[in-house]
Amino acid sequence: MKSFLLASGNAHKAEEFKELFLGGLQVQAAPQTLEVAETGKTFIENALLKARAYAEVYKVPTLADDSGLVIEALPHLLGVVSARFAPELPHYSDKCQKLIELMAGSTGAQRKAYFICVLCFYVSEEEVYFFEGRVHGTIGMELKGDKGFGYDPIFIPDRTPADGKSLAELPEWKNEFSHRARAVQSSLEFFKETMDK
Ligand code: IMP
Questions:
Q1: pLDDT of residue 2
Q2: What residues flank ligand 1, with Cβ below 6 Å?
Q3: Could you identify the atom of ligand 1 that is nearest to the CA of residue 67?
Q4: Which has more pLDDT, 192 or 1?
Q5: 184 with 21: CB under 8 angstroms?
Q6: What is the C-alpha to C-alpha distance for residues 106 and 112, in angstroms, rounded to an integer?
Q7: pTM, whole model, 2 decimals?
Q8: Domain at 75, CATH number
Q9: 144 pLDDT higher than 90
Q10: How many structural domains compose the chain?
């Protein structure tokens, strides 16, 4: 089975990825977190920066992810800088509340948004693979739910039935259909095909 070192010191992320890749790929947590400046203008550039930095230090194939929330009418507000939105507010509940206030005058299609995850598998400078997953939805009018993390309480995924539940109220659905789960699924299909040949 192919094995990749996760280019992140975040234990929560490592556990989540281990579970998502179970039976398909081996993902090991990195022994130490490296400070990598996320200076890219795209999710792809940032994922590559992280994967390459860990590969250069640890000399093994690496896996990095870069993710965020994109509000379609305000693409630069969060996007690649999702983690750095409203830095004066350390808690995500406050960041979510601030976003809701900023969008108070936005209705209908102006509230459309998506979560995106880009995975970068770095084997060598000549062999790099990218996969992307998205989940589309809208920004809700209030915070709802206590599961998940980050912007989950204000994100209402497009689902049938359209019951208005936020991602923070749908942990099982999220495990299966999140941007991360979808990117992982694409990568597993690819590696399964290439390994079977
Ligand atoms: P990264 O760890 O540098 O990729 O930053 C991800 C940013 O997007 C953080 O601000 C997260 O809160 C946000 N984010 C990414 N995925 C999710 C998710 O599944 N739910 C809620 N927020 C997310």
A1: 86
A2: 66-69, 82-83, 115, 148-152, 178
A3: 4
A4: 192
A5: yes
A6: 10
A7: 0.94
A8: 3.90.950.10
A9: yes
A10: 1
